[in-house]
C-alpha cells in the first residue's frame, strides 16, 4: 500500500544522500540503434519515411477534426487528441534516432535528457489513459446508441481528456522527481537512441534496487493494469455483440478488432520494457523502435483513415484546395 511505497522511497532517499558527494556527469552519450555502416543508410531512409508518414498522417487528422464540423463529436475529439499525442510521441524520439545514424558520438546534456524523459512519459501516460477512455466511448456508442449523445457529450469528453492529461503529468513528474535526485558517474554511455528511465538508472552511482522498484510500480504496474482493464473491456464488448444484428455486429467487430490491435501494439512493448527489472536484453532496442516510431504511424490508418466520415472530410478538404 501507500505506507510500503513511502518506506521504499525513504530508503532510496537515504541511499542517494549517502552517495551525494560522488562526482556527477553533465552529459550522456547515446550509442544509437546500430553502428553498422552497411545498415545505417538503409535504416535512415526507412525511418525517415516512417517518421514523415507519422507527421503527415497524424497532423492531417488533427486538422480534419479541428476544421470539419461533421467531426466535432466526442469520438473524433478523442481520435484527434490521440493523433496529436502520436505526433508528439514520435517527435520526441525519432529525431534522435535519425541523427544517430550519422553521428559517431551523439551527446545529450543532462538537462535535455531529463526533459526528454519527462515529455516521453508525459505523452505516454496520457495515451494510456486516453485509450481507456476510448474503450468506454465505444462501449456507450455500441450498446447505448440512443443515449450516447447524453452520456458522452462535449463537456464529459473534454473533462475526460483533461483528466487523462493530468494523469499523464502526475505519472511523469514522479519519474523525473526520482531521476533528478540520483548522482551519476562515468561511464556515461546510454545504450539506446533516446533517454529513458531503464538506461539512465543503470548509470547511477547508488544501489538502484529501491529506485527500480519504484519505477516498476509506477510505469510497469500502470501499464499492466491499463492493459488488463482494456482487455476486459473489449472482451465484454465482444461477448455482448452476439445480441446485435448481423450488420451491426460486423461493424462493431471491425471497430473492436482495430482498437485491440493498437492496444496490443502499444501496451505489449511497454509491459516488456517497464514491468520487469531494468536489465539489458538483445531485443530491447527493437522493441523500443516498435512502440516509439512504428506504432504512431499505424494509429491513423487503424483508427481513423478507414472511417467513412474521415474519408469524406479528406475529399472535401482536397476539393476545397484544388
TrEMBL record:
InterPro entries from the xrefs? Answer: GPCR_Rhodpsn (IPR000276), GPCR_Rhodpsn_7TM (IPR017452), Olfact_rcpt (IPR000725), Olfactory_Receptors (IPR050427)
List the protein's name: G-protein coupled receptors family 1 profile domain-containing protein
Location in the cell reads:
Membrane
What domain of life is recorded for the organism? Eukaryota
Q: Which UniProt keywords apply?
A: G-protein coupled receptor, Membrane, Olfaction, Receptor, Sensory transduction, Transducer, Transmembrane, Transmembrane helix
Q: Which GO terms describe its cellular component?
A: plasma membrane
Transmembrane domains' residue ranges:
41-66, 78-101, 107-134, 155-180, 221-241, 253-274, 286-305
Amino acid at each position: 500500500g501507500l505506507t510500503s511505497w513511502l518506506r521504499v522511497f525513504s530508503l532510496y532517499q537515504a541511499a542517494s544522500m549517502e552517495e551525494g558527494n560522488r562526482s556527477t556527469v553533465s552529459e550522456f552519450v547515446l550509442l544509437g540503434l546500430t553502428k553498422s555502416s552497411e545498415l545505417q543508410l538503409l535504416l535512415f531512409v526507412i525511418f525517415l519515411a516512417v517518421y514523415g508518414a507519422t507527421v503527415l498522417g497524424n497532423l492531417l487528422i488533427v486538422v480534419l477534426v479541428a476544421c470539419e464540423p461533421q467531426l466535432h463529436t466526442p469520438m473524433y475529439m478523442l481520435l484527434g487528441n490521440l493523433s496529436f499525442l502520436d505526433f508528439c510521441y514520435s517527435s520526441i524520439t525519432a529525431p534522435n534516432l535519425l541523427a544517430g545514424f550519422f553521428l559517431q558520438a551523439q551527446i545529450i546534456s543532462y538537462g535535455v535528457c531529463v526533459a526528454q524523459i519527462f515529455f516521453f512519459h508525459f505523452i505516454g501516460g496520457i495515451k494510456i489513459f486516453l485509450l481507456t477512455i476510448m474503450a468506454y466511448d465505444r462501449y456507450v456508442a455500441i450498446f447505448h446508441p440512443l443515449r450516447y449523445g447524453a452520456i458522452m457529450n462535449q463537456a464529459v469528453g473534454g473533462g475526460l481528456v483533461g483528466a487523462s492529461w493530468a494523469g499523464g503529468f502526475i505519472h511523469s513528474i514522479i519519474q523525473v522527481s526520482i531521476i533528478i535526485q540520483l548522482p551519476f558517474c562515468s561511464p556515461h554511455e546510454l545504450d539506446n537512441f533516446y533517454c529513458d528511465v531503464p538506461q539512465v538508472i543503470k548509470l547511477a552511482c547508488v544501489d538502484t534496487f529501491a529506485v527500480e522498484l519504484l519505477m516498476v510500480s509506477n510505469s510497469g504496474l500502470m501499464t499492466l493494469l491499463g492493459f488488463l482493464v482494456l482487455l476486459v473491456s473489449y472482451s465484454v464488448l465482444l461477448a455482448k455483440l452476439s445480441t446485435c444484428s448481423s450488420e451491426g455486429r460486423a461493424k462493431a467487430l471491425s471497430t473492436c478488432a482495430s482498437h485491440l490491435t493498437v492496444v496490443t501494439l502499444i501496451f505489449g512493448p511497454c509491459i516488456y520494457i517497464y514491468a520487469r527489472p531494468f536489465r539489458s536484453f538483445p531485443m530491447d532496442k527493437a522493441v523500443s523502435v516498435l512502440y516509439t516510431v512504428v506504432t504512431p504511424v499505424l494509429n491513423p490508418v487503424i483508427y481513423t483513415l478507414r472511417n467513412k466520415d474521415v474519408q469524406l472530410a479528406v475529399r472535401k478538404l482536397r476539393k476545397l484546395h484544388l
